[in-house]
Amino acid sequence: xxxxxxxxxxxxxxxxxxxxxxxxxxxxxxxxxxxxxxxxxxxxxxxxxxxxxxxxxxxxxxxxxxxxxxxxxxxxxxxxxxxxxxxxxxxxxxxxxxxxxxxxxxxxxxxxxxxxxxxxxxxxxxxxxxxxxxxxxxxxxxxxxxxxxxxxxxxxxxxxxxxxxxxxxxxxxxxxxxxxxxxxxxxxxxxxxxxxxxxxxxxxxxxxxxxxxxxxxxxxxxxxxxxxxxxxxxxxxxxxxxxxxxxxxxxxxxxxxxxxxxxxxxxxxxxxxxxxxxxxxxxxxxxxxxxxxxxxxxxxxxxxxxxxxxxxxxxxxxxxxxxxxxxxxxxxxxxxxxxxxxxxxxxxxxxxxxxxxxxxxxxxxxxxxxxxxxxxxxx
Amino acid sequence: xxxxxxxxxxxxxxxxxxxxxxxxxxxxxxxxxxxxxxxxxxxxxxxxxxxxxxxxxxxxxxxxxxxxxxxxxxxxxxxxxxxxxxxxxxxxxxxxxxxxxxxxxxxxxxxxxxxxxxxxxxxxxxxxxxxxxxxxxxxxxxxxxxxxxxxxxxxxxxxxxxxxxxxxxxxxxxxxxxxxxxxxxxxxxxxxxxxxxxxxxxxxxxxxxxxxxxxxxxxxxxxxxxxxxxxxxxxxxxxxxxxxxxxxxxxxxxxxxxxxxxxxxxxx
Lengths: 379, 268
Prior knowledge:
Number of helices of chain A: 12
Number of strands of chain B: 0
Oligomer: heterodimer
Structural class of chain A: alpha/beta
Order of helices and strands of chain A: HHEEEHEEHEHHHEHEHEEHEEEHEH
Structural class of chain B: mainly alpha
Helix content of chain A: 25-40%
Strand content of chain B: under 5%
Distance between the termini of chain B: 44 Å
Largest sheet of chain B: none
Number of helices of chain B: 10
């Protein structure tokens, strides 16, 4: 069977490299991992890993992993109650790419990824991974894609390491490699103190990290992460993002669902902004911000309970999120903006202010007209 | 910084041993879903097994408290019917409750996204349910034999009888658990079926003691047939129509299996 030849096993032996600092490197045979696709600046790193393995498929066909491109084509999902959760969404994610799906709550992000993993069926449109039609073959989708849902993983009865290893074994991973990979992930995510703790005694954030490790221990060609940093502390968030990046470095296409724009900006190669089921914009974080070049963001923390200040004419646009007033101004108006903000502080209308470069969040706000729920967070 | 390499899923490619057959894929899925279920239920399985044992032994001993004297034939009928309750309860009650809990906690979709054949996940659960119920079956029979000084004629047919009764119960529970998406309703339906089983099915009493119409209805319901299968395997002379009972149970198993297959494969 073609699928069995193409996936589900993470096979033993091949690719174990004693030369690796952490004692192993899995380099499966055939065309995986790939040396030709993904982020060009990382290709050499990957090639270095491959070069240290005796089992390296150095004859891997250049560009062959382009055949593992993930695509959605005009995916539309209308629920039986008439809600159009996705409206003709087309995008693609290359192997090695971390692709963000950004949008406010209810935008249709989770609906889209549930169609990828075969939990929902699109009303129309196609979802493909390489030569596989994931809509027509949901069993293949489950084998080719790994999925961390938004809800907690069911590991109350499991030790943390046990759950990670078991997931790797379920995906067909070799026992030795899975064990090593599990230990490496536990160390990389700083989970050592909870290694053998039962899930029922873990905090939500730690459980989230264990869930990520369960998905990453033996990942499919596409890894879908739905709000992976929920409840995770700032320190370990950084570790988690590092591991997300490393999944990409290994040639895996990562589909990252989040509404945390500030974090996503640092983590993704490209992103799509979705709202009301429609893809509003797509591109790199830099290209998304291109429209804001020459502009600055003035963030003013207003005194709770106070009246909204009247906006001066040089404010191009503004958004209010709680006590935060965010205004975009031309950089030529910086001195006027500072003066206005200082007046607000001086008259007791505001507590403090900050003038910074515009971020992806500003582009996001302009496109969606929503504040991200973590908008005030700088993490 | 060194990359943490990963045992990633991969294409086998020409010339590789990718020729892992579908059978091997199924067996792999069965093995590891069985391991997952055992680990997942390690805290509750002993409790579930204890509940089933208390259920069986409680009925056996409780009947003896109701009546000063119970004829041997009646006692044997009751004692050999109660294992049906043990076997069915594991599948019919526990699975809907477990799945309802998964749906409520939001973890149902994670489990449904696992890369294993869903048929194998079902069979893995069947194995777990069988293992959970077997000690209760044995202890129920032992306590009945000791309490009422019975001499059961246990035939080799006990093996297929236990397997068939448990299989049918598990598939019925599986169908309810996965087809009814509202956790509370799924739990209520399975609980209602248990009451039907206890009160209106000829499991611990002969069908002739039911009103004629109810006895006729029960000819097409699974519980009476399961009891017939079990009674027959344990040498109860009143058991007749064992072949038909297997057919009825098989029909319910197939029907439940089809519903379950539709439910777990359904994509809204």
